[in-house]
Amino acid sequence: MNSEQSIIGARASVMVYDDNLKRWLPSGTSAGLSKVQIYHHQQNNTFRIVGRKLQDHEVVINCSILKGLKYNQATPTFHQWRDSKFVYGLNFSSQHDAEAFARAMVHALDVLSGRLANNPVMGGAMGMGGLPTNGNGFEEDMGYRTMTSEDAAILRQQQQITGQITPSAQTPTSQANQNNIPQSPPTPQGHHRTSR
């Protein structure tokens, strides 16, 4: 019996921030859309994000959602968070997918923090309250770097080469801390991205 259940699925390009190059890069071996899901392990009450490329099913993200994770909606279609090794970004194919994924992420974080009972996500029943945005959200204490117009142009070029251009490959706005990504604090073992 599989005790993991998908609570959301969305289409997005999975990105990782390269601190040395100071830009966002596609996760995995090539750019392209992935199906990104949040799984809930009901017996252990844990959550993880798993993304597989639509084209070849390559796993491009597999990371745990831990209590206290800060999920930042940098733009309506570009969201980001970090673990001990990576800063992840999701460039969603639609604003609808982005909003639904954000609701599921906030739900998972609320369950982990004890603010909500361990209930499955119901359709569109969750409210949008408490979602950080690029207004005065978490940008300062997270130290994230938002995708620049140069990053977006590179992503669009890579997607055109692979024939996978999406309407969300638009330029997110810059933030004050765009070149300052502080080192992540250590987190428990088992927190990794699976990609070969």
TrEMBL record:
Similarity remark: Belongs to the Ena/VASP family.
Molecular function as annotated in GO: actin binding; SH3 domain binding
Region ranges (Disordered): 167-196
Source organism phylogeny: Eukaryota, Metazoa, Ecdysozoa, Arthropoda, Hexapoda
Pfam families recorded: WH1 (PF00568)
Polar residues bias spans: 167-182
Gene that produces this protein: ena_0
Name of the protein in question: Protein enabled
Keywords: Actin-binding, Cell projection, Cytoplasm, Cytoskeleton, Phosphoprotein, SH3-binding
Organism of provenance: Bactrocera latifrons (Malaysian fruit fly)
Alphabetical list of InterPro entries matching this protein: PH-like_dom_sf (IPR011993), WH1/EVH1_dom (IPR000697)
Main location class: other
Gene Ontology annotations for the cellular component aspect, listed alphabetically: cell junction; cytoskeleton; cytosol; lamellipodium
Compartment(s): Cell projection, Lamellipodium; Cytoplasm, Cytoskeleton
Domain WH1: 1-112
Coiled-coil parts of chain: none
Keyword Cytoplasm: yes
Membrane spanning stretches: none
Transferase found in the keyword field: no
SMART domains per UniProt: WH1
